[in-house]
Each structure stands twice: as structure tokens, then as C-alpha cells.
Amino acid sequence: MLDLVTIPCLTDNYAYLIHDAATGQTALVDVPEAAPILATLKARGWRLGTILLTHHHSDHIQGVAEVVAATGAKVFGAKADAHRLPPLDRALVEGDEIAVGAETGRVIDVSGHTMGHVAFLFPASRLAFTADSLMAGGCGRLFEGTPATMWASLCKLAALPGDTLICSGHEYTTANLRFAATVEPQNAALLARIAAVAAARAEGKATVPSLLSEELATNPFLRAPLPEVKTALGLSAAPDAEVFAAIRARKDKF
Ligand code: ZN
Ligand code: FE
Question: What pTM was computed for the model?
Fold first, then answer.
């Protein structure tokens, strides 16, 4: 099992470190800013080997040059985004495998928020790094992809084992769940999650990562296929992707 460390960055971003204790190998997912990441590496005594980039937005990559200068880590990111990511040592496509110690991660194309957005799945440790695709209680805004593209991406993530930890990119959970309650005001699991998230935030705790099973029970974007959700939106006969699009459009105006 990989060790996971969640690192708050900037105002509401998260970076993640994964570490294989047996070999000492360490990888970083996204680099919103260098300082808190370098401080965490130093505190743990870990040597960074690999940087995994999810997508090209500056709040996920702007610390890369400084972390590379300090650690010599190799930078991996989507081949489709090579022209707008920091210089890549390895350009990735869906299905590519990434070794961290004894574990093998897999690249999943989760385009929608941006085209070329990738997620990193480490199945043995049940970790999925989803950044701004599937988020805690929500999903990323569609800056580049169509609703159909994002829906296809979310379906790949929804099919993972329920005990997979969804390591997403931002602390947006409170606002996401406030919106979710407008879609499903009677969802008991959602109401319980809203209370749990409020308690965590009152203590200054992160609400990520979250379990996929929790997302399936409370995240309105993953719940587009449910008859009760379709009915609540007046779309009982619509295809899932169309219902997802309607929920996304509502959230954009929320
Ligand atoms: Zn983004
Ligand atoms: Fe972001």
C-alpha cells in the first residue's frame, strides 16, 4: 500500500504525495505551489522522483519549475497537453502505466473540464487522483469539453471499486453539496454528508479525499442515471448524458 499525504496549497487547491515505504519511491500529483510541497518532503525525509500532472491549468502546474529545480524530479503529463504543460520527461496517453515502488498506476483520460485532463489510478492502493474531473460532491466546470465528453469521463471513474479514494483538486465540497441539496433535498446520505463536511470545515480539516461510494451516494453528477433524479429534473425519459448536462447547466448558474 502506498502512503498518501494531502497537501493544502494556495487558497483551496490540493497536491498529493504518494510514497512506497519499501523502495522509498515518491511521486507528487499536481503542483499548485512549491513551498508547502517541499516542506512536506523535507519533514518526511522523502526524495521526490516523479511529478504527475493532471491538466494544464496554472493552479495545478505553476510550482513545477521550482520543485524540479529543488528535487530533480521527472515530469509526466498528457501527450495531448504537451504544448501547454511544463516540459515533459514523459508524455502519457490513456492506458499508460506508471511505477511507484512496487505499485503500478494507470492513466485514464478524463477530458471535460479541459481536453487532455488525465486521472491517475493506483488500483492496489485504491487511489484515484481526479483533480478537476470528479470532485468531492461535484465535478469540474466544462471549460473545454462537451457534457457528453465529461459524462463519459465520469462513467469511467464511477465504475471503479466503491472503496477507491477520490483525491480531487480543490476544497469546493461545501458549495458543491449546497448545490447537491437543491437537486436531491430528500437524499438522507447527502444531508448526513453536509453535516459531516460542515463539522470538518469548522475544525479546519480537508474534506478530500473522499470515498467513491460516498460520491455515488451523494454527488448529483454521478447520480444522473437514477430514476428519482431524472424525475426531479423533469427529464424522466432522457438519456443519462443529457441529465448530466442539465445538472451541470444548473450548477453553472447556481
Ligand atoms: Zn482546473
Ligand atoms: Fe483547478
Answer: 0.98
